[in-house]
Design a protein that fits this description.
Length: about 160
């Protein structure tokens, strides 16, 4: 049991170190995937388009760096900026969304990449605290399992 807990503890420790060391690569990968999702965005409800809409609605953002990122997409030439960027769904017409100067007043201007990464970084202290607490419990479990094993081994001959 102590060996199993030790193995799990080491796996979690390695995962934490790898996540910390490669955090910049994770950000870069997220940014490129978000750019791909914008490029391939369509009205049909595929996973990537739904994810983009959810992020934009939830975080009140639009595009990767800002709302003008949508101007370089195929979707923009057909329909303009998506409705998920609108500050108010009632005050956002399709004509406004096709004109970048009018859209600037009607949509969120901040990009989603910075908001997502800053939100993740702000929550990292909570994740680190919870992980540290779990690691402490695992270490206590390892120590107690070793003590129990030692106790059983020492008293094995007295049972007869």
């Amino acid at each position: 049991y102590a060996m199993l807990l030790s193995l799990i503890f080491l796996i979690v420790l390695v995962a934490a170190v790898v996540g910390f060391v490669f955090r910049h690569e994770i950000k870069t990968n997220f940014e490129s995937n978000l750019n791909l999702a914008l490029r391939d965005y369509n009205v049909t409800a595929d996973r990537h388009s739904e994810a983009v809409d959810t992020i934009q609605r939830t975080l009140h953002c639009c595009g990767v760096q800002n709302f003008s990122d949508w101007e370089r997409t195929e979707y923009f030439t057909e329909r303009g900026i998506p409705r998920s960027c609108c500050k108010s769904q009632d005050d956002c017409s399709e004509e406004d969304l096709k004109d970048p100067s009018k859209a600037k007043l009607k949509v969120f201007v901040d990009g989603c990449f910075f908001l997502v990464t800053s939100k993740m970084e702000s929550k990292m202290s909570v994740v680190a605290g919870i992980s540290f607490g779990i690691a402490c419990f695992q270490l206590v479990g390892i120590i107690l399992a070793c003590c129990l094993s030692q106790y059983i081994t020492n008293n094995q001959y007295e049972m007869v």
